[in-house]
Each structure stands twice: as structure tokens, then as C-alpha cells.
Prior knowledge:
Layout: E1 8-19, E2 27-35, E3 39-43, H1 50-57, E4 67-75, E5 78-79, H2 85-91, E6 92-95, H3 108-118, H4 123-136, H5 152-164, E7 170-174, H6 182-198, E8 202-206, H7 210-213, E9 219-223, E10 229-233, H8 235-248, H9 260-273, E11 297-309, E12 312-323, E13 327-331, H10 338-345, E14 353-358, H11 368-374, E15 375-378, H12 391-399, H13 405-410, H14 415-418, H15 428-442, E16 446-450, H16 458-473, E17 477-481, H17 485-491, E18 494-499, E19 502-508
Parallel strand pairs: 3-8, 3-9, 6-7, 7-8, 13-17, 13-18, 15-16, 16-17
Antiparallel strand pairs: 1-2, 1-4, 4-5, 9-10, 11-12, 11-14, 18-19
Amino acid sequence: MPTGDAAEAIVADGVGFTYGDADRPAIQGLDLRLAAGRVLLIVGPSGSGKSTIARAIAGLVPRDFPGRWAGTLRVAGIDTATGDRLQLASQVGIVFQDPGSQLVMDRVADDVAFGLENRAWPLAAMRDAVPAALADTGLAGFERRHGSRLSGGEQQRLALAGVMAARPSVLVLDEPTANLDPDGARAMVERLARIKASGETTIVLIEHHAHRGWPLADLVLALDGTGSTIDVGTPDEVLARSGDRLADAGIWLPAAGLGKTARRRSRRRRSVQGPPDGPVHLGIEPSWMAVDRHDPGLVEVRDLRFAYERDRPVVRDVHLQLGIGERVALVGPNGSGKSTLLRLLAGLLRPSGGIVRVAGRDPSRMSGRRLADLVGFVFQDPELGFIENTVAAEVALGARGRPADDLMARLRLPLEVYASRNPYRLSGGEQRRLSAAPALLRRPALLLLDEPTFGQDRLGWEAIADIVNELVEAGTTVVAATHDVAFAARIATRRIEMDDGWIVADEPVVRAVPEPVPGPSAAGPTAPDPGSSPPTGVSGPPGRKTPPGPPGAVPAHRHGSPC
């Protein structure tokens, strides 16, 4: 049985870890006490060691990652570095930042049951636990669906269902709302509040958008970019003592409690870091100069249909035209077909019916190199786009002799620091920015971004938004699938909404959303949540047809299941 003070779920004394190929610690000098049944919120900029702490609590660091470990970490009384791994696994459940990486079975129900089978649960108990976990995460009716074909948000819920079915005493969630639509994010927070209210589970919550976890948190651990602790205390204590310092580090914070200094610095930073006037200044030439810029039509989509399974259409009768230099926010609930539509536009999938043309060509039938020059695609899961084992080699794939130093510095991945690092060992936010670099360097005619602000602190968010705006000014057409209302308002002039595979709205973006710093407070609305409801618009442009769905019917505006 575990030993130690049963009232303390997590005890860290001088914990530090340096990955084997790193030149600095990921975390250092961590001291922490968390009582059982409480909620710990961990905040910090990209690369501050948040995910490393999550892995350490689950016993993955240092055992499964080569490197240098320091200090002692006990979870449920078990030493995570030297204690019984099976015993620790029975106490701790973790949902990773990339939920797809922990899906192991083909069918949804089998994936939830997998962990229970490994724990030798009785069959009767599993029959009750699996549907209950799916229902609680809004996935009732998904039992026979393929996990790999779910949207990113649905995979996030599936990973949570698999963990919660086993009833861990410590639940670790790494960016649990990052892939969720606004309704889903709110439902996730409500679900965590119910778990907390039961008093049976200790929760460790990692969130870039701290306001989502702020009302839940009993304790806040704030980290800086070196993996050191800025502050630890109650939410009110941390805001009062360190709010200005956290804002300067690029951490999204609730507006309530921030000092005037932080708000003034945020406004000043936005005024000096906005995109430059005039054309793009990335020091590289577009790779799509053969496209006729006097032809207003770059993308044409007619009667587009697609289904992974014959009786389950994902994209339904989509009609779409995009001109050169358009900037589009593609919005809609999880599972509405956004990522699939992007993959069809990128030529990664062949339509079940209808046509897709980019600059008059079928992207699904183009050679890889010619397609990469015409269409750039940034996956929702950054690791899907990685090929090389160093950052420098990964960037070189897109650079093709073009200078990359300036762009990488603006993406906060300077090559003099990151060149030799392994892309798979970067933080989630760093991976996201790296995954965008090859496409940004090529400057294609059409740039497709799937959740580009996933896992970003405020500084990374601003860098991506500014670079995208510069590319559009130079003539690149951008389509960004996003749940991030502030990003949509910052980069888009056109909003296309999908629901259940249909395009249900196509309209201009109303730029009435303030800049996204800082986020809303627990007490009430202040500045917007970058992941709140999509921006609304006025009536669509004349002559732009938006198919209403099945003949004689207008599809209901469905936001899916609660989360």
C-alpha cells in the first residue's frame, strides 16, 4: 500500500529534470504540496515544463525519457521515480496534450475498455463502466465509430473517457480544452467542477488559457520560460503577487486582479508588435508565382462530398469559391467536417463526389513537390507533419535554400538555440509553431491551417497572427479552421461555418472583438476568451451561394453533444 501522508496527494521536493539531448533543464527546483481532492492549475509560457511535470506525476519522467532527474516526487504516497509502476498507474490517469497519441484500439468502445482490461476488471463491471464513461463525455452512440476518424475534439473526449472509466485518484489533464469547440470547452469545465465536487479525485490541470481553470483551482503553480517557479499559491495570491510578471511572460490570465501595469504593458506590446505596413517582409519569394494574380478565382469547389464510411458522410454537397488573398475563418462544432474539408482542399483526400480545383488543378492528382508549392497544409496534430529528427532539418524541407533565420526568430524558435533539438521533444506550443514553419517559408498560393493557435501562449499567438496577416497582404489565400474567436477576428475577413458536414453560413467577419489580453475572469465577462463562441457576421456577400443541406430542408444549427 502507498505510504506517507494520505492528506497530501502530491508532494514535490526540489524536483528537476533535463532531457538527454537538452542543454538546459525542462523543470528545476520544484517544491509543491497538494492536498487530496484539490485542483492544481499549472500555467506558464510555451516550453516552460508544464507537460514535463504532467509526465513526471504519471511516472513517465524519468523512467521512459532519458535524462537527468533531481529531487523527489511522491504521488498518492508513491515515489514516481522508484516506486511500483503498476501501483502508480492504478492511482494516476493522464490525458496528453495530443489525445490521438493515446488511442490504441480501432473502435471507440474498445479503446475505453482497453485500460480496464489491463487492470483485469470483471467483464460485468466493464460493461457498465464503458457506456457510462462515454455518456459522461458526450460520446454516447459513438461506441462503434473509429477513433482515428474522430475530430480532434472528439478524440480529446475519448481519451478522457478512457481515463475516467478507471476512476483514478489523481487526474492529470494537459490542455484538455485545446481541441474543443466553445460549447465543448464550457462543458469540460463543468465536468471538471462536478469531479472536484465529489471530493474523490485530485486534479492537475494544465491550461494556456488560465481563466478556464481559475474558478476551479485551489492552488496555482506558475512557471517561467526556464522551468523555474515564478509563484505558487491560491489564485488570488498568485494574481496579486505576480500578475504583472506572468503577463510579461506571455501567460493568458484573467483580467480581474491584474495590475494596471500589466494591462498597460499588454496594450503597449500590441502597439509595437503588430504586423508591419505594406507587403510581407520575410525575406523570401513566393513559390506560387505561376498563379495568375489577375484571376480572382483561386479555389473552386462544387458538389463536394466525402465519407470515411459509406453510410456516414462527413462533407455534404459543399460549394465554395475562394479568391486570391482571401482570409477565411472556418468555424463550427467538433465533428462538423472542418478538418476533412481542409484535407480535401490540400489534396490529401480524394472526394467521394464533386470536384476540387486549386488554380485550375485537382490537388489530389498533383505530384508532391508541385502540390507543396501550391498548397501549404498545417496539421492539427503537429507531429503528423514531422519527418526529420532535428529542427534545422525539418525547417530545411520547407526552406529549399530560402533564408529561414528571421522567420524562425519571429516564431520564437531561433535556430541558434533550437537547430539541433528533436522536434518530438519540443513543447506542444513549440511543435505547433515548428509545424507551420515549412509552409510559411514556401509561401504557397493557398495556406490551410488546422487549429493554428493550439497550445500557444500570448506571445506565440501574436507571432502566428502577425505572420499570417503579412502573407495575406502578399497575396496568399488563408483558410484557418479554428475555435479561437480572437484569432478569427484578427486574421479573417470571411467566416464560413460548418455543421454536420454542411456549410450553414458564409459571411463577413464583424471585427467587434477586442484584443485577447487578458482573458475573461471568473467573476464575469471582460475581455474575450480566444476560444469562445465564433465571431458573428452580417448577411453573406451577394452572389455567394450557401447550400442549405438536403433538398427542402435547412439543417438545424447543431453544436453536437455537450462536450
